[in-house]
Amino acid sequence: MAQLPAHENKIRDLTLPPGKAQQKHHDTKISGLALRVGARSKMWIVDYTDEAGKRRLMTIGSWPKMGLKEARAAAQAVVGGARLGVDLIAARDEKKAAAKRHAVETLGYWWDRYDRQHVSGLRENSQRSIRGGITDLLAVASKLPIGLVTPSHIRESMERRKARGAVKSTFHARNTANGFFKWLIEQEAIQFNPVSAVRSPKRGRGQRVLTDAELQDLLALLAGGAMTKNAADVVMFVLLTGRRIGEVVGLTFDRVDMKAGTMTVLAGDDKESTERLYPLSRPALGII
Fold first, then answer.
1. 267 has pLDDT over 80
2. Residue 258 to residue 263: CA distance in whole angstroms
3. CA distances from 70 to 5, 33, 65, 195 (A)
4. What is the pLDDT of residues 110-149, one digit of tens each?
5. Quick count: other Cβ atoms within 10 Å of Cβ 53?
6. Which of 80, 88, 188, 213 has the most crowded Cβ, counting Cβ within 10 A?
């Protein structure tokens, strides 16, 4: 049985005997510690018996990255842990497996699972709304391991949405991400919800208006017969007056003065709970 030299310089000079693929050099101080010399590398190994009496072999490092002193200390930890019932090989293997899982289980991977298990079972409009709410977060962090997604990534995704002019929808985007990360906690994929550290954006009233392109699309739908005549009249009346749909649908003839060209919205129908008088244009009067 080949013995391990006591000095690093002599370890450096160790070579393979002719005809051998590898050779073990056993340490004389730490039982079970050996240096396995191969054609291209020198690896430290520990041969020991675990608490159940089973013989185990563990690689603890390579020379010269791990010197003789460090190898002896590591070998003592392995042997001592085995005597106390601590399986360092199992702990090491679990650590490697966890690292592999984290490398695979990205935000995009978990979103696909959430989509299949939760979103796909909802109504079509809800599916479209939820998927639209998560697009910016996926663009920012879809390839990141789920455990590495931080509040900064949530904020960045909301800023991307604001930069496109979709300011009001940042509230919906945050809520969508919040529901997703709460589900992840239930799945025990994460322990901390990064959305909880991001302040909810204010929902300003009356700040969202149709863009010119959106208005043109809507008018094209109305002209193309996408709605019934009554529904199209209601939508056009809303566009002409700026009133809410509930106010328009609930409007009765006794509250319209055709001669003066005005309409009255009662306090119970007004969002400010105040009775108001509004002027009507000729096209609006024509719809009535």
1. no
2. 8
3. 15, 12, 10, 44
4. 999 999 999 998 888 889 889 999 999 999 999 998 889 9
5. 6
6. 88
Could you tell me the two tokens for 165? Answer: 């002019």
DSSP state of 200: P
- CA 42 → CA 12, 48, 59, 65, 207, distances in Å? 9, 19, 11, 10, 69
Sheet (strand 262-265) strand order:
256-257, 262-265, 276-279
What are the residue ranges of helices labelled H in 26-142? 68-83, 88-104, 107-117, 124-141
**How high is the pLDDT of residue 83?**
59
Q: Is 13 helix (H, G, I), strand (E, B) or coil?
A: coil
59 touches 49 (CB < 8 A): no
pLDDT score of 273 = 66
- Tokens 């005809």, residue located: 19
Q: Is the pLDDT of residue 271 over 80?
A: no
Q: What is the pLDDT of residues 28-43, one digit of tens each?
A: 888 889 999 998 889 9
- Alpha helix stretches (DSSP H) within 118-269: 124-141, 151-163, 170-186, 212-223, 229-241, 245-249
Whether 60 and 34 have beta carbons less than 8 Å apart is answered as: no
Give CA–CA dist 112/104, Å, rounded.
13
**8 Å CB contact between 48 and 80:** no
Tokens for 153? 């990534």
Question: Could you tell me if 287 and 239 are in contact, meaning their C-beta atoms sit under 8 angstroms apart?
Answer: no
List Cα–Cα distances, 188 to 3, 73, 104, 110, in angstroms: 50, 36, 16, 12
Say if strands 33-38 and 55-63 run parallel, antiparallel, or are unpaired. Answer: unpaired
pTM for the whole structure: 0.42
Per-residue confidence (pLDDT) for residue 141, from 0 to 100? 94
